[in-house]
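Worked Example 4.2. Consider the chain below.
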Amino acid sequence: MDGAAIPLSTDAVGSGKVESAPASPHEQLEQSLELFFSKLKYLPQPDIDLLEAAYRFSEVAHEGQYRKSGEPYISHPLAVATILADWHLDPQVLMAALLHDVVEDTAVTKEELQELFGKPVAELVDGLSKLEKIEFQSHEEAQAENFRKMLLAMARDIRIILIKIADRLHNMQTLDAMRADKQRRIARETMDIYAPIANRIGLNAVYQSLQDLSFRYLHPNRYQVLSKAVKAARGNRRQLIDKILAALQTKLESAKLKFSVSGREKNLFSIYKKMQEKHLTFSEVLDIYGFRVVVEDEPSCYLTLGALHALYKPIPGKFKDYIAIPKANGYQSLHTTLFGPYGTPIEVQIRTKDMHRTAEDGIASHWMYKSTDGHMNEAHQRTHKWLQRLLDIQSESGDAAEFLEHIKVDLFPDEVYVFTPKGRILALPQGATPIDFAYAVHTDIGTHCVAARINYELMPLRTRLRSGDRVEIVTDNQAFPNPSWLSFVSTGKARSQIRHYLKTMQYNESVALGESLLEQAFDVLAPTRGDHPPEMWDRYLKEIGSKSKDEVLADIGLGKKLSMVVARALLKLSGIEAADMSGLPAIQLRGWESSALHYGKCCYPLPGDKIVGLVTKGQGLVVHMSDCHHVTNPEVNPENLVEIDWDPPSDKQYDVGLDVIAVNDRGVLAQVAAVVSDHNANIVNVHLEEFDQRPNFTYIRFLLQVQNRAQLEDIIRNLHAMQIVESIRRRRN
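Applying the procedure from the previous section yields the following structure tokens:
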């Protein structure tokens, strides 16, 4: 049994100490080197000799290079290696840390490193090097591509992320030398990406340090004020903290438990975040201190919990059992909040020594040199599963920026824990819905999801899940993702899978439409041409630099290429003379609507209307009524106009605008809407306006969905028969 005092913050402002003259850069480097080798006692001498050789090689490679602070550049890789030595990582990782910038910043090659220090070290260093010789349009694009490269390297060797996190931690600790704008940019990137990754892999102490350091540069004034306030409160509340520590120790001793108890101070950013979220002043945040009890084994955790609840009353709803249900990063502890002396809330964490090691070092504890702890394999497996999920997202994201957006969504700080029908526990981010749950179980279940039962009751798919919910997904093989799902899903996996499906559907429909347009052009230009020789397409693709025939067809369908131009080029390559363009046969609309085929919002064409297609760049084929001003405009290129016609009737619903002027009586909207509904039309939205000139009338603007023109004419005829309706107009242009 032992008790520890609350640790003082290392960044406390205005300590008032008299400092001695600072050491010279050379002296500082010697001290850092001595500190590094003092931490290597867990390694055998041959490994230490290798590390010394790696240090000397890196020192020579970086000779003449200096950091912005004026220190020799070698001080940075040495500091990164020292952080990793604290985690007792293997020699390969420490060598890679010492050498991690030599390929990027010096003339040393990967092959040289492989020859001198072995392939694993060279691969680690390569995974840490930024992308070179590629020009990006923006910093965001470069950041996204570098992160994607790092992820792919992490998938090969998870140790890369440990080096990268240590590298970012030291960069944040020495950020003072940078310009203010660069400080903010690096701090924002750290807060958005690197701190959440540290949390996700269980590096709790590093996670909190990165948060505090980012907070310091993102909000320097708030950081200074809050830092001073915490320092003052530390002195003011010392007597209370000592009293609580003594009471906890006495109670646990009487329960005959083997334990250590210590006080801990919340990090500045978590205090600031609580003040922001709950709109509190600093004086209203009572729980800036917490206590941690470390015991021998798991049963002792629950015995300790019972003893503490007998000492101070627990606050209802403030107990969490992360031992029975660990967090996604492997974290385990019992959390409880008690009513302490004078009504002060006391937060207490209870855990075993193994749980404490995992809580502090996370996945790094798995690589502790010659670790034989079997349960650490679980941490390894969890991180591999997380990385695999990120790789799945990566493979389906269109570009690096979109991928990074998904990753930021996926790096969640808080989880809800829900159950499958078979009792399996899934961790999802706060705000997750049944759609997120379905994709977390399996991609196919998410793709074909139609309904969800939460705790045995059918609930909407946008319902927010809560910890403890039992979720069952109802699927239908004929169902597919709805674009509206993107407005409420929470996980990166669900978002990327939905977008991937929608893009694939768009592409396939664009290819089909492009093929129809091209065939139509061929029928006019060379009606007796016969089959297209394959070499015709091969030569054409080579000429224009496209990868495939489908890519060209999709471009035609999306309006990026004109079918007539492509048809003429293909026929020329085949040696077939093209006829003049005239009288194209009409394309039959099949009732499908996608980004490859749109219905004009200017005239809302319906089956039964005379229509024409306008090929518009980036939109593909847009269907208009034949007298719409968008197609009758003399500036329209005739080659962009395509004859189209309606297919036989289908059950598809089409949007149409209807404007009604009616007497401004009570219940007028309900009466008009009832007539519309009686004709099986769907009201998408409705907007009412009053006339300034005619106050007795109201202007009702409907957006309806009907099957065809005949159905709309029936609705208009019945509305005209109502005495309260003065006029009706189908909305055009």
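The first helix runs from residue 25 to 38. Residues 25-223 form a domain with the Hypothetical protein af1432 fold (CATH 1.10.3210.10). Compare this with Example 4.1 before moving on.
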